[in-house]
Specification:
With 752 residues, this protein is of the alpha/beta class. Helices cover 45% and strands 13% of the residues. The strands form five sheets. The protein has an eight-stranded mixed beta sheet, with helices on both faces.
């Protein structure tokens, strides 16, 4: 017993010595880098939040146990190249992790550098879904991926019953990959993107106006805007001028809009007037203790940073939590015996030399171990619980759904990956069983653009851009209206004549006369016609006679209604009737009346079978090129006797009856077109004369060098016509739009 107690004491002593040695072996400080864009809304908020987190951690005796975080910060000013250079500067100083970058585009580039040097790249704002791929193991996203945001947008589209949307987005990694993810999510819900309207980063106001004009000509009126604040706000401004913020339109903005509006101390009424009725998303954060503490001292933190006052936003909370994630991971890293050491990269040693100083870049030996500890963190942060799933995403992704109305933002519900759309906060629903049934998806009422409270239909007939406001356009329209009036009047008179004059020798003229009579009616055995005649048309079953073969058809019709076994008419599907007439070409039978049901024949396939699309496409092609009708004529009507068809009415109007009207209308169109062409040629000749006069060569030049070739002249004329059309269309749209209040100052790009 004494030996056992002695052995236990030795073990305790060894453990105590090991623990004290581990603690004493920790470095005094650890270098971490942070990259921001202080000229952006997110960058300003995040910079203050990161500094606050570092101070809180360094003053907390319960974490890192004496090791301090040495923060080095760089301002990239939203410049991608500067961001890359600054990341290289971090790597020269034995940095164990980099907080940032803000931009998804920069994150793609720096992730390759992080992979090579084994330095975790921890971004709280790069939301591009493709950054979660296995290609970037050292990229750690400490915010919610746009994959979930696009799922929430797709759920909104499905909730309101729209099937097609138009997307407007910035053409970079952030915009393209986000919209690609939206397309995937919509396809899961049997919806689709009808039109993708991309614009380049840094697009001008004119560029964005041109994009909106193209969007306005499309069928869909549900517009998803995935952009940056600098371009997104201009889109709303131009959309208002073009009348695209009116009734019938739907605008859904991703979280870029709330990330710009939330930090503003006072919301600009003029700015909000350009986006009335817009639905926007905001990252949902829980009301945690750390969030309350950070919010209570936020004004003081902003003042100490030397910035003008701005509020705390969700991205500020994510930035604050990012530093704590790194601190918890480093604490676990040191507890497991990890140490900070760097080794030369043999690949860089091979290409060293010159002025790049590549030999200063070294590999973090404990990078993989620290990365593993980062993915294992589990604590309650400022934004909510901080824990990563197997895919490297934060658990419990959720969004607030807000409606911009009047002078503020109104929350109409929430979206979470757990329960979908709801008016109950996600943290409350997490305590209940998941329920994503359609009946459980709810949102509060929305006030749509144009102050509509009724859900917009979401589509219109596409606008082909034809301008009918000119004098020539009005002239042609008046002629056409005159022609339509005459055709309508003639058709009404002809129809009245047809209905009042009995021209058929048979008393049966159609299904209506057959219903009112008491004559027997034949039908094919097993056909749906029996049930249709009895239940839909109310014909007594005693009047019906079942017929099984074409011979029985013929016999019953020849006997007629007055003899036993005969019928006055047979009701059957059109193909069977035509086949019967084809087999009896010399009979006196005929088809009377029009088809009174629209039921057709078709092919049935399992749901989502690829054959359904291919076969439908083939049938449409046969129908469009006339093959289907030629097959029908060949096999069913080529041998029919004229007696199988009712005699045509010689007094009935046909297209030739209106030949004079069409001639007048055609001449009017040609006349208007000629005047327009002459006017255009005249304007072009003046334009060309000015250009030629400004570019006259010296008097010694040859005649051939003084003029353009015919082909060049034609190309120049067509280009002039195109520019004139685009300019006139833009001017006309701007004139008819109601000008709103001017937009307030706009922040720089903070999310791309």
């Amino acid at each position: 017993m004494t030996f056992i107690l002695h052995l236990f004491g030795v073990l305790c002593c060894l453990c105590s010595c090991a623990q004290s040695q581990n603690i004493s072996g920790r470095p005094d400080a650890v270098n971490i880098g942070a990259q921001f864009a202080r000229n952006s809304t997110i960058g300003r908020v995040a910079a203050v939040a990161v500094v606050a987190a570092v101070n809180d951690i360094n003053n907390d005796p319960n974490i890192l146990l004496g090791t301090k975080l040495d923060l080095k910060m760089h301002d990239s000013s939203c410049n991608r190249f500067l961001g890359i250079v600054q990341a290289l500067q971090f790597m020269e100083k034995d940095t164990v992790a980099i907080i940032g970058p803000l931009s998804s585009t920069t994150a793609h580039v720096l992730s390759h550098l992080a992979n090579e040097l084994h330095v975790p790249l921890m971004s709280f704002s790069a939301t591009d879904p493709t950054l979660s791929s296995l290609e970037y193991p050292f990229f750690v996203r400490t915010t919610v991926s746009d994959q979930f945001q696009m799922a929430s947008v797709a759920d909104l589209v499905e909730y309101y019953g729209w099937k097609q949307v138009t997307t407007i987005f910035v053409d970079n990694d952030y915009g393209r990959n986000g919209i690609s993810s939206l397309g995937d999510e919509l396809s899961k819900r049997r919806s689709k993107i009808l039109y993708k309207a991309a614009f380049r980063p840094g697009a001008t106001t004119e560029d964005l106006a041109d994009v909106l004009i193209r969007v306005a000509m499309r069928e869909s009126r549900v517009i998803i805007l995935h952009a940056n604040p600098d371009s997104g706000l201009v889109v709303f401004q131009q959309a208002l001028k073009l009348g695209m913020m009116s009734s019938g339109y739907v605008w859904i903005a991703t979280d870029w809009l709330t990330s710009y509006l939330d930090p503003l101390v006072h919301l600009d009424i003029g700015l909000l007037s350009t986006m009335q009725g817009v639905i926007a998303l905001r990252h949902h954060t829980e009301n945690t203790r750390r969030k309350s503490l950070l919010s209570s001292k936020w004004s003081e933190l902003v003042e100490d940073s030397g910035h003008s006052r701005f509020l705390l936003s969700t991205y500020g909370l994510y930035a604050y939590d990012t530093v704590w994630i790194l601190a918890h991971a480093l604490d676990a890293f040191f507890n497991s015996g990890g140490n900070i050491s760097f080794s030369p990269d043999p690949k860089l040693q091979e290409i060293s030399g010159g002025g790049l100083n590549l030999e200063a870049l070294s590999v973090f030996d404990g990078g993989w171990q620290l990365l593993e500890r980062i993915h294992q963190v589990n604590f309650m942060g400022a934004a909510g619980p901080v824990k990563f799933d197997s895919g490297g995403n934060l658990i419990r992704p959720a969004y607030d759904i807000v409606n911009i109305v009047g002078s503020g933002l109104r929350t109409i519900g929430y979206w979470s990956n757990y329960s979908g759309l709801s008016v109950i906060s996600p943290e409350t629903l997490y305590m209940k069983p998941a329920n994503r049934t359609r009946e459980n998806q709810k949102l509060y009422d929305v006030i749509w653009p144009g102050e509509d409270i009724k859900r917009p239909r979401g589509w219109v007939f596409p606008n082909n851009g034809e301008d009918t406001r000119s004098t020539l356009g009005r002239f042609v329209i008046i002629i056409w209206l005159f022609v339509v009036l005459i055709i309508q009047s003639s058709y009404t008179a002809s129809l009245t004549s047809i209905l009042t004059v009995q021209q058929l020798t048979s008393p049966i003229t159609g299904i209506d006369s057959l219903i009112t009579s008491d004559d027997p009616i034949g039908f094919q055995v097993g056909s749906f016609a029996e049930g249709y005649l009895v239940h839909e048309l109310g014909i007594s079953h005693s009047r019906l006679k079942a017929l099984g073969t074409p011979d029985e058809y013929k016999s019953a019709l020849e006997l007629g209604p007055s003899k036993k076994g005969g019928v006055a008419a047979i009701v059957d599907e059109r193909p069977y009737v035509e086949l019967f007439l084809y087999q009896n070409p010399n009979s006196k039978f005929a088809i009377v009346g029009s088809e009174f049901t629209k039921s057709g024949w078709g092919f049935a396939f399992p749901r989502d079978s690829p054959l359904s699309v291919d076969l439908s496409t083939a049938i449409l092609q046969l129908s469009e090129n006339g093959d289907l009708q030629r097959i029908h004529d060949k096999w069913l009507t080529s041998s029919m006797s004229p007696t199988n068809e009712l005699p045509s009415d010689p007094d009935r109007l046909d297209v030739y009856s209106f030949s004079a009207l069409f001639l007048i209308c055609g001449l009017a169109c040609i006349f208007a077109l000629a005047i327009h062409a002459c006017s255009l040629f005249y304007q072009y000749s003046r334009h060309a004369a000015v250009d030629d006069g400004a570019a006259l060569p010296s008097s010694g030049a040859s005649d051939g060098s003084r003029s353009l070739s015919r082909r060049s002249r034609l190309h120049s004329f067509l280009s002039f016509a195109d520019r004139r059309e685009i300019d006139s269309r833009r001017v006309s749209k701007e004139k008819e739009a109601a000008l709103g209040a001017s937009v307030g100052s706009m922040g720089g790009s903070n999310q791309d």
